[in-house]
């Protein structure tokens, strides 16, 4: 299993007129966590793409639990429970780590803000045809499963 954590601070432009994070930004947080996870295990996306493989999003799913506001610090936990073959299935949980926003109730600190999953495929850059995980990437990931 691969499991990584990173933090992000909610910025003003990510909020809506109600002062809470717009729902579309959670998918961006999922992506940020996924990019950091791949970097941490030694597979930066720039290297994968440089070797002729693209990583299109096949599907996303997100459940929203508690609102976040500007100034909240969110912990993004990304995990992969099985070895990818033709697709990577990455689960993400976002937790409210801390807040400097006076509108954030103290009881929300430590609570799950959102959780979900993203499925990523592998395609060859030149043909745009689906392929299996590249051998070098599989070798790096094997030690986690």
Q: Can you describe this structure?
A:
The strands form 2 sheets. A 5-stranded antiparallel beta sheet has the order 1-4-5-6-3, with helices on one face. A two-stranded antiparallel ribbon has the order 2-7. The longest helix has 16 residues, at 25-40. It has helices at residues 25-40, 45-50, 135-142, and strands at residues 2-9, 53-54, 57-64, 72-80, 87-99, 112-121, 123-124. The N and C termini lie close together (5 Å). It is elongated. The chain contains 3 helices and 7 strands, in the order E-H-H-E-E-E-E-E-E-H. 21% of the residues lie in helices and 36% in strands. It is an alpha+beta fold and 145 residues long. The mean pLDDT is 96.
Largest sheet entry: 5 strands, antiparallel
Please give the number of β-strands.
7
The amount of helix comes to 10-25%
What structural class results from the helix and strand content?
Answer: alpha+beta
Quaternary structure type = single chain
- Overall, the morphology is elongated
Question: What is the distance, rounded to the nearest whole angstrom, between the alpha carbons of the first and last residues?
Answer: 5 Å
Q: What integer is the average pLDDT?
A: 96
User: Beta fraction of the residues?
Assistant: 35-45%
Spans of at least 5 consecutive residues whose pLDDT stays below 50 are: none
How many helices?
A: 3
Element-by-element helix/strand order = EHHEEEEEEH
| Strand order within the widest beta sheet | 1-4-5-6-3
Taking Cα atoms only, what radius of gyration do you get, to the nearest Å? 17 Å
């Amino acid at each position: 299993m691969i499991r990584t954590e990173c933090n992000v601070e909610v910025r003003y432009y990510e909020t809506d007129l109600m002062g809470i994070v717009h729902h579309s930004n959670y998918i961006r947080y999922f992506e940020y966590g996924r990019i950091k996870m791949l970097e941490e295990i030694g597979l930066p996306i720039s290297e994968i793409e440089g070797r002729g493989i693209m990583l299109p999003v096949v599907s996303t799913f997100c459940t929203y639990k508690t609102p976040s506001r500007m100034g909240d610090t969110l912990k993004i936990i990304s995990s992969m429970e099985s070895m990818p073959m033709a697709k990577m299935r990455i689960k993400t949980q976002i937790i409210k780590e801390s807040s400097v926003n006076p509108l954030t109730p103290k009881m929300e600190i430590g609570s799950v803000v959102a959780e979900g999953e993203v499925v990523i495929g592998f395609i060859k850059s030149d043909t745009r045809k689906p392929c299996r995980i590249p051998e070098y990437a599989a070798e790096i990931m094997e030690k986690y499963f």
